[in-house]
Amino acid sequence: MLENQVLLLLSHCNILTNTAVFQNNSTGNKPVEALDSSVSTKSQSKKATGSSNKKGKSPKVANESPKKQTVHTMGKIKSLEQRPLKKLYPSSGKSVVVVESVTKAKVIQGYLGDMYEVLPSYGHVRDLAGRSGSVRPDDDFSMVWEVPSAAWTHLKSIKVALGGAENLILASDPDREGEAIAWHIIEMLLQQDALHKDLTVARVVFHEITESSIKSALDAPREIDVNLVHAYLARRALDYLIGFNISPLLWRKLPGCQSAGRVQSAALALICDREMEIDEFKPQEYWTVEVEFNRKQGSSMNSKFFPSYLTHFDSKKLNQFSISSHTEAKAIEQEINSLEFKVIGSKRNKMRKNPPTPYITSTLQQDAANKLHFSAMYTMKLAQRLYEGVQLSDGKAAGLITYMRTDGLHVSDEAAKDIRSLVAERYGSNLASDGVRKYFKKVKNAQEAHEAIRPTDIQRLPSMLAGVLDEDSLKLYTLIWSRTMACQMEPATIDQIQVDIGNANESVVFRSTCSGVEFFGYQAVYKDVEAKAIRVDENEGNERGEVFKALSSLKAGDPLYLSLLELEQHHTLPPSRYSEGALVKKLEELGIGRPSTYAITMKVLQDRNYVTVKNRVLYPEFRGRMVSAFLSHHFSEVTDYSFTADMETELDNVSAGLTEWKGLLKDYWTRFSMYCNRVSNVHIHQVEKMLEKKFGDFLFSFLPDKSRTCPSCMEGTLIFKVSRFGSGYFIGCDQHPKCKYIAKMLDGDDDEEVASQDKTFEEPKALGLSPGSSEKILLKNGPYGFYLQLGEDRKGYLPKRASVSHIKDVGSITLEDALELLRYPVTLGNHPNDDHPVVLKLAKNGFSIRHRRTIAPVPKMGNVPFKLMETLGPKIRIKKRRQNPYMYREQRCSDIVTLHDTPLKEKEFSLLV
Ligand SMILES: [Zn+2]
């Protein structure tokens, strides 16, 4: 909403000039759009600088403090040698610490005392504007940022706190996103001229929220890492460009479908490709022969049975499909029943099973999904709380785990030592690993190398947190605690026995195997999935132990008697669909996405109705499959796994300072825009044909005898069609419009709101004719919602349009309403100062007035109807009233309306004249 935000332009290699822009235009809480979509960055910067000079305010270029200069030039000078910053604890003067969240702020404030003021930024203070044109490839990839209204308040608190402060310490989360938050805050404070020249600006990172680690982090301050910021910018720009360019294309070719996003598209492709494999899967029949042997002839209650399976028949080794029919199986049964058996030999094997690696984001999400049935999103939410700090029973607050977005396996030496000594204390020294176990992973960028996820204090046992944490948080903490302990423990030893049993000439051989845990090792505290298969429940465990004992007592030549023979029919199973945990694992294996993106990827796919989750299994919806097929057909790069993985590597290279980010964007954009142009010329018929070819079996499976002849006209053929109106898909007759037969409607949009709107009218809806031009007035639906259009689409004609996406019941819009809405923008007159037109425009919530690059919202006029507003427009006068300078009065109506609850600059007053 225009009233609530200020739109800011950033050309971040040109921060000096932009600072001047902001001095001119930005005035604290007041909403101003500082960007004209038709004006390029450079000319805007020049103009703005010029006008500020005219007003006698020189741009703040001359009085650069050294500190500011490093901040300013960071976009340009990467190799600038970083001066060591002074230690920030204890503080010699007042320090302002900025973190993301209130919780984190409270906990840290408790550690640091009065010399520090810890404030939350509530996440990002600005973000890319969510509309087209926010990333501009033709303007050196400049980006338009938007500041949500709440962020102004948070920035103001920081600004106020900085008065008299010696240090500004930016301590947002220790990753690219956190680095970007810190950078945005500095940018915004610079633009508001809130960084005085004696202020030291420093970045510190807290990998864990505990008193000692926070104090030592304050003694290792650094500058903002420009490479991390660039990697963030490149990712944002890339994702934005793909989203905002694919979405309108998708909308036109596949109504109702939005772009899934860059990483999400690759994830969707994985899910849809698997579904294709399942569709195409042909089950194969095979048979198994399973028997039980007994040491004595005939069966008795006390005798031991050895379940065995057939491995050789007729002196041939069998594979899964060797016995493919009942007839074959029966023949084998007959033969076996006539034979006598003895033990051929046995083999014992000891296997060492190493403890698992410490948790990183992906493995934590997988394990929590498998063992606790948590979604990736939920796991991250709980982990964030554990990291940020929890009020403990002794009244103190502390972060319970290290930072949860990490792909580093490293555990600090000190922590590893503590873990080992607790293992020895609780489980005995024979379970503690010989020395400290170290885990490594090749990481490209040391700056991004984090520790693995572990408890901040291993002595804080899960049992001590019962009652402090809610049930699910405690479960997650327990999982993290156990895995961390396991990592410093001895391997488990597994004893396996294998006995081969055969007839006299050994042409028929069976095998019997059993395994048991000889030494639990780490499995005393942490049970991985494989361990679970070995250590079954108590009863079965005993039985298994007995089988193990019985098998190990067998010697070669011992006679054995067949007590049971079972022939079993099987069919091969299709590959299974992904669970969330399995998909995260796959994404990680392929190098798609990063610790920060797995959870959000899952969420987006579900929010867009591309994927549904049933019993923790991900099922692609037909809509998701269409989008994925469309993208892989026309934008192969977007859905290609290896391309997406390469792009992630490129982004890692940017963050390591090895790749220049704008060059990367340029390369990509050149190719991508070519695809876009090509696809915009693809006819919807081609899309229909492509989808029909790909999903034909699925689409026409409902037809009783697979005949696609139209049952209505008996001439046409049934084909897959995309509705030209609204967002539906159906199977209909190709003789349309001669034959209007529709065999089946396919679910186009599950969105109730859209569905209910679709019922009331067919779109585009002709509302009537424009009295002046006899042009049709149409109500249409587009990627950004419903809009009105004057005249039909035709070549060389740019129809006038007005968005009605904010109107809930678009079906009720009348011709009169439409004519009214289509009148805007209306020129109210020329500005007395520069003779440029002052224009009244429709805005999302009412009206706005625009003069050159400045847009000011028109306050709500109470009951004044739309029409009256316009006639009043030129007559609006601003009166600077003594009692309340922020009111203006409309003379004729004598309506007094509050313009703003915040001060306006003279400029805005004069603008409204
Ligand atoms: Zn027909």
UniProtKB/TrEMBL annotation:
List the transmembrane segments. none
Show the InterPro entries listed in the entry: Topo_IA (IPR000380), Topo_IA_2 (IPR003601), Topo_IA_AS (IPR023406), Topo_IA_cen (IPR013497), Topo_IA_cen_sub1 (IPR013824), Topo_IA_cen_sub2 (IPR013825), Topo_IA_cen_sub3 (IPR013826), Topo_IA_core_domain (IPR023405)
The segment annotated Disordered runs over 26-76
Q: Where is the Toprim domain?
A: 94-209
NCBIfam families this protein is in? topA_bact
The record's annotation in HAMAP family points to: Topoisom_1_prok (MF_00952)
Q: What is this protein called?
A: DNA topoisomerase
Q: Which species is this record about?
A: Vitis vinifera (Grape)
